């Protein structure tokens, strides 16, 4: 029995004969889809994957509805499972900051392991609500619908070079999703380049870039199935998780910050800044200069720096932590675990209750200017190496520390969890 950490799989994929353009049936990950977005996606196609990942209705009926929808699609031939295992190579072109970037990853199965085994590294704290929701959906559908986004190390570029051999051939499918972003997908069976790729990936460790909740949910689901009598060999379908793996040498691996809007009861931000002034270099920012804040933080990427703007006060502050270590050198950690904890005395739970997360700096500032939040915080983006080093030391960063963009679409492939099936 194959005990490899990374293996090809029999993907459940859409039939283009049935659905036409794949871009019409793909969707963003479930956790970034609001009600209006879900409605728009459902309107694009009766077969859009959001009908399963974000089902309408209330629990528990919504999970039953999702499972019936998926089963009906398989019965109708809207989705069909590959006869043989393979890797999927997925290339995405997108615009950012006036340039064109290309990110290429591999869809595969990664064996679920405890974090202390050192193969999979996590860095973000998770919350119970999303895990409960995803577990209910996974149980109902007996499937993993969205991949975990992993990053593997590739200092010598060997993984990228093998991937390039695959993308030099004709793709299996291509589409645009969303507008201006172009995708190509190749299917490579377990011969030639795929064998080389598997050998290289099986010697790696993997950093979770996106999908901490889904990974832990897959662990819980596996344990529940084993508790109910499913095999425990390390080589069955329920002992793996659907993975999208990108080498850290990939030029399109883009890591952005997730900014914060702080709500709840009013806090004394000015006193907080004064109380931590010994820990931070503090620069007052005039209201007229706030428009330049995003540019300052772009230049400060990898540094423990953030801009704080409080409601009913003109301007704001630029703060940079003095003498950071590997962990506090990450901007979100400097803000949450030094500024909020020491300056305002907020516990981690209290912080989460007050926090909203936004990717756009102008939108974040607008939440304060419009009175929708009592403070806005713009963070400098971390570096992938920082996150990996912190994770290797066992640190868990605050939620939404990383924002790898663009998000990996759901609908490219699904992993059916058949507990008696050997991968």
What features would you highlight for this structure?
25% strand, single chain, 32% helix, alpha+beta, 21 strands, 14 helices, nine-stranded mixed beta sheet, six-stranded antiparallel beta sheet, 423 residues
**What distance lies between the first and last C-alpha atoms, to the nearest angstrom?**
9 Å
Shape: globular
Radius of gyration, CA atoms, in whole angstroms: 22 Å
- Residue share in β-strands: 15-25%
Count of helical stretches:
14
What is the typical, i.e. mean, pLDDT?
94
- Biggest β-sheet description: 9 strands, mixed
Percent of residues in helices: 25-40%
Counted beta strands: 21
Indicate the low-confidence ranges by residue numbers.
Answer: none
Which structural class matches the secondary elements?
alpha+beta
Would you mind describing this structure in some detail?
With 423 residues, this protein is of the alpha+beta class. It has helices at residues 16-19, 35-44, 50-53, 61-76, 128-141, 158-167, 193-201, 212-227, 269-275, 293-299, 331-343, 348-354, 361-369, 384-392; strands spanning 6-7, 12-14, 79-81, 86-96, 99-111, 120-121, 143-144, 148-152, 173-176, 182-189, 206-210, 240-247, 254-256, 259-262, 280-285, 305-310, 316-321, 355-358, 375-379, 403-405, 415-416. A hairpin with a 2-residue loop joins strand 4 (86-96) and strand 5 (99-111). The longest helix has 16 residues, at 61-76. The strands form five sheets. Strands 1, 4, 5, 6, 8, 9, 10, 11 and 12 form a nine-stranded mixed sheet that branches. Strands 15-17-16-19-14-18 form a six-stranded antiparallel sheet, sandwiched between helices. A two-stranded antiparallel ribbon has the order 2-3. Helix 9 (269-275) packs across helix 11. The mean pLDDT is 94.
């Amino acid at each position: 029995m194959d005990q490899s950490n990374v293996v090809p799989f029999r993907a459940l994929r859409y039939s283009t004969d049935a659905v036409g353009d794949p871009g019409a049936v793909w969707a963003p990950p479930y956790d970034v889809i609001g009600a209006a977005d879900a409605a728009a996606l459902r309107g694009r196609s009766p077969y859009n994957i959001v009908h399963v990942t974000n089902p309408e209705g209330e629990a528990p009926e919504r999970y039953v509805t999702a499972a019936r929808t998926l089963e009906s699609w398989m019965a109708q031939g809207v989705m069909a499972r590959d006869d043989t295992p393979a890797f999927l190579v997925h290339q995405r072109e997108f615009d950012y900051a006036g340039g064109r970037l290309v990110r290429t990853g591999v869809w595969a199965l990664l064996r679920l392991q405890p974090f202390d085994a050192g193969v999979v590294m996590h860095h973000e704290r998770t919350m119970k609500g999303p895990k409960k929701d995803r577990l209910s959906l996974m149980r109902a559908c007996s499937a993993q619908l969205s991949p975990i986004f992993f990053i593997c190390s590739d200092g010598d570029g060997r993984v990228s070079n093998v991937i390039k051999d695959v993308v030099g051939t004709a793709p299996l499918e291509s589409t645009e999703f969303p507008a201006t972003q172009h995708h190509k997908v190749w299917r490579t069976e377990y011969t030639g380049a795929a064998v080389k790729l598997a050998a290289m990936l099986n010697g790696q460790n993997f950093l979770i870039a996106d999908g901490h909740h889904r990974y832990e949910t897959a662990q819980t689901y596996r344990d529940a199935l084993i508790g109910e009598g499913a095999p425990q060999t390390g080589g069955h379908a329920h002992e793996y998780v659907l993975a999208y793996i990108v080498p850290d040498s990939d030029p399109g691996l883009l890591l952005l910050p997730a900014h914060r809007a702080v709500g709840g009861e009013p806090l004394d931000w000015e006193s907080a800044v004064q109380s931590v002034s010994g820990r931070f270099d503090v620069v007052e920012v005039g209201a007229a200069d706030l428009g330049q804040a995003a540019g300052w933080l772009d230049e400060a990427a990898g540094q423990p720096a953030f801009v704080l703007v409080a409601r009913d006060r003109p301007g704001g502050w630029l703060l940079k932590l003095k003498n950071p270590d590997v962990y506090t050198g990450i901007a979100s950690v400097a803000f949450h675990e030094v500024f909020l904890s020491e300056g305002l005395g907020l516990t981690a739970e209290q912080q989460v209750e007050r926090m909203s997360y936004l990717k756009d700096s102008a939108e974040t500032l607008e939440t304060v200017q419009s009175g929708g939040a009592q403070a806005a915080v713009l963070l400098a983006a971390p570096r992938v190496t920082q996150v990996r080093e912190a994770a290797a030391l066992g640190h868990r960063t605050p939620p939404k520390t990383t924002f790898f963009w663009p998000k990996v679409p759901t609908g490219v492939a699904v992993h059916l969890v058949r507990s008696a099936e050997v991968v």
